[in-house]
Structure formats: structure tokens, C-alpha cells
Write a structure and sequence with these properties.
Structural class: mainly alpha
Helix content: over 70%
Largest sheet: none
Number of strands: 0
Low-confidence stretches: 513-522
Shape: globular
Length: 537
């Protein structure tokens, strides 16, 4: 007998809802690296900052790798079997990160946490869909759940940073390991031991493609994380990683042609919405990468510590809540998705316009509150809108493969590549400004102490000027993104309608070309896959 729920039949329904929230919130925020603790991790381990960034990207790759096989495992094993083992392994990986000083162990554990996290999420997202939208109104689910799924990690991220700041960074991972063990115990007690649907074999999984997919994107993550630190392509390690990425991609293409059911079939990139959705995700990465400039101002110019800098993420929460109400009004009524996405990009553009005029030594904490509310609103709207557009016209068998690639594009490739570009441009502009400011100063006219104080002031001026120039660049490119999105055809090209139109014009019968009855199960599965993959953002 099958059971599409999560808990045993004897569990009262009010308790089911409470348990679902208890499970969902920790699984949403569990991670190998809590980025607010990054500086504490680096100083404690005496390692390079880039290794921890690499570990964070490895977690993103892990989520992408799990998506193409996630439904096969869901149909292969019982719910309790999957949840208990997933939670136990996540707890073990968090414990390993907290007790090791090896960079490789941290990167590997972060990868497996990202990989396993999706197996737990897929079990929790289906019941949540039914609770939020019991009538099948999927836009309502997207409008409520996705911004909420961003609000809680923002809050917990700050609390983890505060906890690590007041104690030790390892305690964040220890705490999460304990919570995962507690959830595993609850799973044993309350979850049923039945299948979701008909049992499916694991024999069809393309393990070779899965290995090559992982190697290619981990190599790309290494290049993105270490490019600046190792002076780009002047480093043998970067050249080697880039070579692994190219060679692995060639092998993957060959493997895809040889397999009937490859791990990820990249033919979905022939789809109009996937192509332009990917471009928009890269542009979203452009805006997200630019948001790191705020930390340069708050820490480099204003002298805030990491805890106070992370508190700005809390001011994004009102914007995220505003995005829920806006999405409810817009998506539920099925209004234009193009206008919805343009609203998100416009919000981020206004955030950068604000920041351009705010950059100054007299900038205060309070002046950054409104821009961060706007940033939170724009980010939530784009996370929902672009994802729905990119995956909206794909069949279920292609959707998870596309989601696996798009989540890496959205979270790693877009922000990572643009960060490399910004860092490179910032280094050139800062040096240029510093040279222009210092060039007319006679150092011999000042004492050493006064010269060092003067250098500090000039260095801050150079930082402000170069940062403001990058904000100007962001505004100009952001305006071009708005033009690009406004020119897109969000309806796509409906070839079926063209065929019907040609036949009607020629007076021919269209019998057999019109599908009068929709396959309800296929549509339901499509929405479940879309929801499960989108929660990864």
C-alpha cells in the first residue's frame, strides 16, 4: 500500500503540521558552511579564505548533483528509511567539519551535506504543497513558500554568526548536528514505513555521467574560488582545474551520446525559456555579486565587525515579506510574468542607485536599512519569477536535469564569475585612484607616523572612489538588463499553434492534432518536480 504523506496514520493531523514545520525549518538552513562565520573559520584554522569559499560552492554542486536522481530514490525506498539515514549522515558531516582542520575534509563534507539535503527536502516539500495550496493553486504555493524559505535562512544565518562570534564557530556545526540527530529520532517515532508510489529500480542511473558532472562543476568551483588568489591563469593549479573542466565536459558529451538515459540530458538548452532563463539567472548573479560591495563599505570604510555587517541581512526580511504579498496579488491572479520579473530587476537596480549616492565617509547604519529592504524584495521576486519562467515549459523528465544545472548557474557560476570580474576591475581602479592621489604627495615632508595616518585616509578615499565607480557600472549594465527582459517573448514559440493555423488556412482537418483531454497525473508530477527543484534556491 502506498502513502504519499510523511507521517504514520495514527499521528493526529494538527501534530502532523507541527512536526512538518519542525522538520522543514532546520533542513532548509542546514549547511556545511555558514558564511557569516567565514572570517572566524579562516582565522581559527589558519587557512586561506578561498578554501572555505570553495567548500561553500561544493555544497551548491552537491545539491545540483542530487536533483536528477532524487525522485528515483524517493520511489525506490521507504520514507522513514530515506529520512533517518539522510539526517544521520548530515549530522555526521557537520560533526566532521566541526572537528577537523583539513581543508579537503571540509570541502567533501560540505559537498555531501548539499547532496543529502535535497533528499530530505523532497520528502518535506510535497506535504507542504498540499497544506499551502490544497486546491492545487500552485502560484499561491510559490508566492508564500519561496519568500518564506528565504526569510528563515536569513534569520538563522545571522543567529549562527552571532553564536559563532560569542563562542566558537565550530559550535554552529555541533548545534546543527544535534538538531539533525533529534530529527532522526522523531523520524523513527512518527514517520510511516510505506512507499510513496510504485517501486523503481536504481539500475537506470548513469553513474559515469554523474561522476563526470560532479568533477566538471567542482573544477569550475575551484577556478571561481581561487582565481584571484592564484593570479588567474598564471597559476598551474588554475590551468589544471580548467583543463579538467574542459576534458571532463568533452567526456560527458561523449557519454551523453552513448547512453539512452544520460544523467543530465543537456538538450533542454534548445528550449527558448531555458536559454533566456539561464541568461537572466546569470544577470541575477551579476546583481548578487555586486551586493558584496556593501560589505566593503561597512567593514572597510565604516569599520563594522562581521556580526554588525551580517545584521543587514535581517533588514532584507521586511522586503521578503513584502514580496510574499506582491506575489500573492500578482501570481495568483496569473498576471504578466514579464512585468513581475521586471519589477524584481528594477528593485535591485534601485538598490544600486541608492548605494551609488550613499557611498561616503559619513554613511551611517540607518541609511542602509531602506536599500536592504528593497534588495530583499527584488531578490525574492527574481528567485520565484525566473525559476518559474525557465522551467515552465519543460516536460517532467527534463525538468530536474535543467534544475540541476540552473541551481549551479544561479548560486555559483553567476555570482562567482561576476565576483571575479568585479575584483579584477576593482583592483585596477583602486590602484589607479591610489596612484593619482599619492602621486602629488612628498612623503619626506611628513613624519613616519603622520605619513601612515595620511596613507590610511588616502587608501579609504581610493576604496570609496573605486567602489562608487563599480556601482555606476552596475547601474548601467542593470539598465541594459531591463531592456533585454522587456524585449523577450515570454509566451515562447508555440509550434503546435502554427501547425493548426496552417492546416486551417489550407482547409485541412485538425483532427488528432488537438489534445482534448489533459493528462492530470503528468501535470501534477510536473508541478511537484518544479516545486521540488525550485526549493533548492
Amino acid at each position: 500500500m502506498y502513502n504519499k504523506g510523511l507521517f504514520a496514520d495514527w499521528v493526529p493531523k494538527p501534530l502532523m503540521i507541527v512536526l512538518l514545520i519542525v522538520f522543514l525549518l532546520p533542513v532548509l538552513v542546514v549547511s556545511g558552511i555558514y558564511t557569516g562565520n567565514l572570517s572566524y573559520i579562516v582565522s581559527s584554522l589558519g587557512t586561506q579564505n578561498e578554501w572555505i569559499v570553495f567548500a561553500n560552492y561544493a555544497g551548491v554542486v552537491g545539491m545540483g548533483v542530487s536533483l536528477p536522481i532524487i525522485f528515483r530514490y524517493k520511489l525506490r525506498f521507504h520514507t522513514k528509511y530515506l529520512m533517518v539515514r539522510t539526517l544521520l549522515f548530515i549530522a555526521l558531516a557537520n560533526f566532521m567539519i566541526a572537528t577537523t582542520d583539513s581543508n579537503i575534509v571540509i570541502v567533501s563534507s560540505a559537498f555531501f551535506i548539499g547532496f543529502l539535503k535535497m533528499f530530505a527536502l523532497i520528502e518535506l516539500i510535497m506535504p507542504m504543497m498540499f497544506i499551502i495550496a490544497p486546491d492545487g493553486n500552485r502560484p499561491r504555493f510559490y508566492a508564500i513558500f519561496y519568500p518564506s524559505a528565504i526569510v528563515f535562512p536569513q534569520l538563522v544565518g545571522y543567529l549562527m554568526t552571532r553564536y559563532g562570534f560569542n563562542t566558537y564557530w565550530q559550535n554552529s556545526n555541533f548545534l546543527m548536528a544535534i538538531i539533525m540527530l533529534f530529527l532522526a529520532t522523531l523520524s523513527i517515532v512518527f514517520m510511516h514505513n510505506q512507499r510513496y508510489d510504485k517501486k523503481v529500480s536504481r539500475k537506470g542511473i548513469d553513474w559515469t555521467g554523474m561522476f563526470l558532472f560532479t568533477i566538471v562543476f567542482l573544477a569550475l568551483a575551484y577556478v571561481i574560488a581561487f582565481a584571484k588568489q592564484q593570479n588567474y591563469f598564471r597559476s598551474d593549479n588554475i590551468i589544471f582545474a580548467f583543463g579538467v573542466m574542459i576534458f571532463g565536459s568533452i567526456l560527458y558529451v561523449i557519454n551523453q551520446r552513448l547512453k539512452d538515459d544520460p544523467f543530465v540530458n543537456f538538450n533542454f538548452f534548445k528550449n527558448y525559456s531555458v536559454i533566456h532563463g539561464s541568461v537572466m539567472l546569470l544577470m541575477l548573479g551579476f546583481f548578487l555579486a555586486g551586493s558584496s560591495l556593501q560589505s566593503k563599505i561597512t567593514i572597510g570604510i565604516l569599520g563594522f565587525d562581521s556580526l554588525m555587517d551580517n545584521s543587514f541581512n535581517l533588514w532584507m526580511i521586511p522586503g521578503l515579506l513584502l514580496a510574499i504579498f506582491y506575489s500573492m496579488k500578482w501570481l495568483v491572479k496569473e498576471k504578466s510574468l514579464k512585468i513581475y520579473i521586471l519589477t524584481g530587476f528594477s528593485a535591485l537596480l534601485f538598490y544600486y542607485i541608492f548605494m551609488y549616492f550613499l557611498v561616503s565617509p559619513g554613511l551611517s547604519y540607518e541609511k542602509l536599512i531602506v536599500p536592504n529592504i528593497i534588495r530583499g524584495f527584488g531578490m525574492a521576486v527574481l528567485f520565484i519569477g525566473i525559476w518559474l519562467y525557465a522551467l515552465g515549459n519543460l516536460p517532467p523528465d527534463s525538468m530536474l536535469g535543467a534544475a540541476a544545472v540552473l541551481i549551479i548557474v544561479r548560486t555559483m557560476i553567476g555570482p562567482g564569475l561576476w565576483s571575479i570580474a568585479f575584483n579584477y576591475i576593482d583592483g585596477i581602479w583602486k590602484l589607479e585612484v591610489l596612484t593619482n592621489l599619492v602621486g602629488k604627495i612628498d612623503a619626506s615632508a611628513y613624519s613616519q607616523q603622520k605619513a601612515m595616518g595620511l596613507y590610511r585616509i588616502i587608501n579609504l578615499d581610493a576604496l570609496m572612489i573605486s567602489t562608487k565607480r563599480i556601482y555606476g557600472l552596475l547601474i548601467m549594465v542593470g539598465a541594459s538588463v531591463l531592456i533585454y527582459v522587456s524585449l523577450l517573448n515570454f509566451e515562447g514559440l508555440n509550434t503546435r499553434r502554427l501547425v493548426l493555423l496552417k492546416k486551417r488556412l489550407k482547409g485541412k482537418s485538425v483532427k488528432g492534432y488537438i489534445r482534448d483531454v489533459e493528462i492530470q497525473d503528468e501535470e501534477t508530477m510536473k508541478e511537484e518536480v518544479k516545486a521540488a527543484s525550485a526549493v533548492a534556491v
